[in-house]
Amino acid sequence: MKQKKVSVFLVLAGALASLGLIFLFFVYAPLLAGECRSMYPDLAHLYWPGLIFLWVIALLYGAAMTEYFRISIRIGQNRSFCRENAKGLKRIALFMAIPGVLWPLPSFVTDIGPSALLLLLAAMASLALGMLAWALSKLLGRAVDMKEENDLTV
Question: What is the pTM of this model?
């Protein structure tokens, strides 16, 4: 029963985080980009490419959140230590590492000045979360191996 409560908490926390990401990428970012387009008409041609860039990153984060929800549900099913969770964490690591590489790209396309620091911070955060997920996948994989060995000896 305790696993179910943990799973519900994880799903609710993930839903809250997902709603925040949806708001950030699909509501706030287009509004901010529209303001920037009117303030800097010489960069107006970057409006749609910039939004598409952000939406690609949002899709990658959404894919990571989907894997997170799958893992959370398996935890509720008392399947915390299973190969699927280790593979899911590897996929989360990939889905977080790709934006970590993509975030700095706009600074190469145009001179964005101090905003480059924000892109670098976003890249480092994505890469750090990706590395954390990858390390947890390795740790969980070893735990599954040990569990299977113990199940065989009984």
Answer: 0.89
Q: Quick one: pLDDT at residue 112?
A: 73
Say if residue 133 is exposed, middle or buried (CB neighbours under 10 Å; 0-12, 13-18, 19+).
Answer: buried
Helices (H), the chain: 2-23, 29-39, 47-76, 83-102, 106-109, 115-153
Long-range contacts of 36-43 (CB under 8 A, 24+ apart): 43/110
Residues of the chain with pLDDT below 70 are 1, 152-154
- Contact criterion met (CB below 8 Å) for 118 and 57: no
Cβ-based burial of 52 (10 A; exposed 0-12, middle 13-18, buried ≥19): exposed
